[in-house]
Amino acid sequence: MTKKKSMQNMSYEEAFQELETIVQQLESGDLPLEESLDFFERGQSLGKYCSDLLEKAELTLKKLAPSENGAFAEVDFLLEEE
Amino acid sequence: MQPCGSLCAKGLLLHDAGRLDLPLQQRGQIQLTLPSVLGMLRLVKTISFLDQQTPYWSVTEITSYIRQSLESDYRLQDIWISGEVSNISRPASGHLYFTIKDSGASLRCVMWRSQAAQLARLPQTGERMQAHGHISVYEAGGTYQLYADTLRAAGEGEAFREFLRVKSLLEAEGLFEAERKRDLPVFPQRIGIVASPTSAGLQDVLHVLERRFPLATAILSPTPVQGEEAPAKIVSAIEALNSALAIDVILIVRGGGSAEDLRAFNAEDVVRAIAGSTAPTITGIGHETDLILADFAADRRAPTPSAAAEVAVPDRQALYVNIYEQRLALKTIFQEGLRGKRKMLEQCMARLRFASPRVRIANARQRVDDHLRQLGIVISHHIDLHRQEISTLSRTLNAIGPAKVLARGYALVLQKEDHTIIRSVHQVKTGSTILVNVSDGSFDAAVTGIDHALDEKAVYRTDSGLE
């Protein structure tokens, strides 16, 4: 059975892969009726989640700047810099 | 002696000049200049004068002689000269004239129009250049010159040698092997970018990422991409990304430029850093024809920064299509599954109906009905048979029964009270009531007289007061 991870935390990749898995399992055909229903609903939710992610996403820009101890910190980055 | 192929600025080398047979010394050649040659020729002239030979050289003769001497020296026919260029002129003829010099001497050069036309650009005064050609004499001007066929910037030769050195070294170490190339992640969430922060290449990359896969986070590791400090800074930029958190892929990009501009991406350190990167690398360095070692070391190479970004991420539009297809498949498969299940259910119901006790009951009922019917038939039959028997018996009975007897006129006489059959006169007395059955009915009667006429037991008496 799939691990029912809370959908909000899933990456696009995870969500889409789960959707594909669900489709494959339904295709293989031997599920009890109730499980089929559950899978179907979850698949619909995952599909919608993926679509939403794509639609609402905005590219996040960061820049590596050296910090005190010699390591690097990620700071926000504006494209219009100079 | 200077190595073969380079001009000895200290003087001309004459050998086997025919009339002049001058010994060459190991150190410090005889300082020969044209004036000193002429001086020697004067000496020869003096000697030959003594010999009664041709007393004078003409200028043409001597100059021609010098020219032939130079041209017969194979070491002067295929040489590279390195120095600083100046006095550049290119008159209408198209030929290129310039001087190449260093601190000790200078050399006039000429490059004919056809070869000069092939130069990518003209040299500039003060530029360090390398020229290739042969030495000869411009007789009309009384000068010796380099007749140049090739001219290149001084760095280029070294750069190319360095390129070859690094290439064969790293190739031998296996850094360019195809098996080393890693697969790129399909959905990179964190994309590192090594680029100059002000470059158009970076802008291109970010636009492509925004358009195709805005889900990602782009992390710039800024660095100069040309100049002296570029190689070291590029290496640091790559290492910084590799030490940062969970970078899925690194793009190393810069826009197009000359071979000199792109030098940093052939530097051994840079190429090693790319090959050794923990995250997979994609190079997007704009160059048309030259080979760039960084491209060989990366896991993927792309011709431009934009192309590198396109390789790195999937296209949002294509992803939408994928999602749509999956959802469609989901629905279709689910509905088909339902249909399948429904069909199975109906089949089961059919079998159930077929196997239901109702049927057996109905069957049984039918059998009962059949039996009953059968029974009815049989009983009827029996009853008929009986009836027949009864009527037969009845007829028989009738035949032998009292009715016929009565019809013949006999009467059946019974006691009135108990219907006992009266057979004998002894059963009655005068006055008793009797019932008389005749053929068509019965009537009551009273005995009015008795006659013992047929009685065997009667005693013969006279009829005197017998009661």
Observed structural traits:
heterodimer, A: alpha+beta, B: 467 residues, alpha/beta, Rossmann fold, five-stranded parallel β-sheet, 12 helices, rod-shaped, disordered N terminus
Task: Write up this protein.
The complex is a heterodimer of chains A (82) and B (467). Chain A has 82 residues and is α+β, with helices and mostly antiparallel strands. Chain A is built from two helices and two strands; from the N terminus they run ααββ. In chain A, strand 1 and strand 2 form a beta hairpin. In chain B, a hairpin with a 4-residue loop joins strand 4 (128-138) and strand 5 (143-153). The radius of gyration of chain B is 73 Å and the shape is rod-shaped. Chains A and B meet through helix 1, helix 2 and strand 1 of A and helix 5, strand 7, helix 6 and helix 10 of B. Strand 1 (60-66) of chain A pairs parallel with strand 7 (217-222) of chain B.
Biggest interface and which pair forms it? A-B, 38 and 39 residues
Residue windows where pLDDT falls under 50 for at least 5 positions of chain A: none
Oligomer designation: heterodimer
Count of the domains of chain A: 1
SSE topology string of chain B: HHEEEHEEHEHEHEHEHEHHHHEEE
List the secondary-structure elements of chain A in sequence, H or E: HHEE
Rg from alpha-carbon coordinates of chain A: 20 Å
Overall body shape of chain B: rod-shaped
SS field, number of helical segments of chain B: 12
Tell me about the biggest sheet of chain B? 5 strands, mixed, barrel
The tally of helices of chain A reads: 2
Distance between the termini of chain B: 212 Å
Mean pLDDT of chain B: 84
Question: Roughly what is the average pLDDT of chain A, rounded to an integer?
Answer: 77
**Binned strand content of chain A:** 5-15%
* Principal-axis shape of chain A: elongated
Provide the gyration radius of chain B in Å: 73 Å
Cross-sheet strand order for the largest sheet of chain A: 1-2
CATH superfamily of the domain at 185-314 in chain B: Response regulator
Helix-residue proportion of chain A:
40-55%
How helical, in percent, are the residues of chain B? Answer: 40-55%
